């Protein structure tokens, strides 16, 4: 049939798709190359790999196989050189982000950990299968189970798990399902600990709230805007990165070269095929309130946990305080000054101090003698 396609259809097939590729100038190769350029700022040697997490038929019961092909799925992974006896720290990024966002932290953390950072399935340089989930439970399993297959493929038996924002939500859900694998949980500005408030409920009953909620439920994401702008998308991302990461900075501002490299990297990760981003309406209701709040499962927690928040984080640490009341495991809440939601970019030195303190029983011969580093606050 394809060989008989002539005339108008043939012209469309030759002209339309090349036009789209030019309109959204990105690809997986663009993402990986942008990642390499950004990580050139990191001094610690590392290995980048695409970890195969398996394949299956399009009608597979495994959610991330449900697309038009049975091609293998991969998790983009970077592993940094470390001492042989270093504890393993696995880092998981947040929504609309990817592992390269931690570029300011890899050197410091790799000095004391075996650092492994991933792009979650459907994000960054990882595979972007069609997103077919239709419920909160299915969506959680999409991320949790693909992460577990990655762990098996990497043969990592036990590790410290650090998750930022949405990555903190997924890390928490993973730890609830596989507590025997996680030695300590570090949740940085974690989403998912607050339920919808009465104020939001009232707002959603108004006509403005109703319209915004319909947009939310339609899965209209920030990435949709970036793709729609085509060749003007990079300019919007440049304005975002230059403004977003200086609001609460300690003076460790992005240099001009950093800003360019980060902008390039962020653009390519956002403009690529929609996949993992489509989880949003199934995990959160309008206003980023979890549909399955972690607060409700706090009493089931089996892994010692440290929460880290920037002083100006829009994620409210009071949800973590409430969860702590119900946890039966050690739990600390640390606040880092002069930083917001991206504390690891805005105040990297404060963030590193918080992580080292959180993991002191893996790093110090006498952890009980360790005191909270100066400048940090215990909530």
Low-confidence stretches: 1-20
Strand content: 15-25%
pLDDT averaged over residues: 85
Question: First CA to last CA: what distance?
Answer: 67 Å
- Count of DSSP H/I helices: 15
Gross geometry: globular
Q: Order of strands across the biggest sheet?
A: 1-2-4-3-5-6-9-10-11
Beta strands, count: 11
- Quaternary state reads single chain
SSE arrangement, N to C? HHEEEHEHEHEHHHHHHEEEHEHHHE
Helix percentage:
25-40%
Helix-strand makeup class: alpha/beta
Sheet with the most strands?
Answer: 9 strands, mixed
How much is the radius of gyration in Å? Answer: 21 Å
Describe the structure using short key phrases.
379 residues; alpha/beta; two-stranded antiparallel sheet; 11 strands; globular
Task: Describe the structure in your own words.
The structure is a single chain. With 379 residues, the chain is of the alpha/beta class. It is 40% helix and 15% strand. It contains 15 helices and eleven strands. The strands form two sheets. The protein has a nine-stranded mixed β-sheet with strand order 1-2-4-3-5-6-9-10-11, with helices on both faces. Strands 7-8 form a two-stranded antiparallel ribbon. Strand 5, helix 5 and strand 6 form a beta-alpha-beta unit. The chain is globular. The N terminus is likely disordered.
